[in-house]
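Hi everyone,

Forwarding the result from last night's run.
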Amino acid sequence: MDLDAQYRRMVGWRDRRLLDRLGIAQPIIQAPMANAHDEALAIAAMRGGALGSLPCASISPDQVRAQAASVRQVVAGPINLNFFCHDMAETVDDSAWRAALAPYYREYGVGYPATPPVARRPFDDALCAAVEDVRPEIVSFHFGLPAEPLLDRVRAAGATILSSANSPAEARWLAERGVDVVIAQGTEAGGHAARFLPADPASYMGTFALVPQVVDAIDLPVIAAGGIADGRGVAAALLLGASAVQIGTAYLACSESRISPLHRGLLNDAAAEETVLTNVFTGRPARGFATRVVRELGPLSPAAPPFPHAGDALAELRAADPASFANMWAGQAARLTRTEGAEAMTRRIAAEARALLDG
């Protein structure tokens, strides 16, 4: 028996449906967080026994291939590739949004960028081809699922398919379309809410109300996400019926993440207790720190154009004053984070949870 197998045997989690299916030692998924980390964080989390994830929503197919290869060169174990499945209009009328931002343009002496940043593309044929080349053990989706032909290709490549739900109705929708595992994402979660069925953000459910309802609604393993940053959260989620948890914000605080010093500092500040759900950075509700633009124009502004176009008009303002105009995502458990390596954090949180569950 190799060392990894011995370690998995020692970690005697009661619900092993997902652990055995995914081949991981701890019931922890390191959340994919676009633009916040690369393969270094995934590698460290995997070394701690978690499922490592690569955020592929804002990188090219060739970068997907390269990052996955980098992971596999240095660590064994399953890997999760994550993609967005948003509807995307090629052109939008953002005149109201530009008008809302005009006072800031004048203040900072900047304007709408002559060449807007490349927008995040939804999962498409080129990204699906990368999946077929990489053949990851797990593929996860945000904002629903891709078109059925693409989903069939992912399934044919041998991947276990995960997707996120913000409500029991969304969980049922995903189950009906053949996903293998549902991530129940509560409104406490940092970054973009996964919501893909119409709903008022005011109706979004908290994690510990959502999880047991999703567990009851579908006959699939459920992963709890949102507001989980220590062993207490892991233990609570498992007791509510989740087979594992997905952790994001706590991994942001780890040394391997690529967030800015400004963002990292806020995780250890009183501001960590006051994150908000806002659409002003991208056009979709996402939880992060309430910077100046959020306080003055949002948090949920009707002028913001659809995702991902709201960010285009902010590009030069972000460059001029990141503290006021940069999106810095964080969940409601941000105050519980610690600055440490991702491998050590994974093992610590798992040990805390085991102590509570076995006590």
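The first strand starts at residue 28 and ends at 30.

Cheers,
N.
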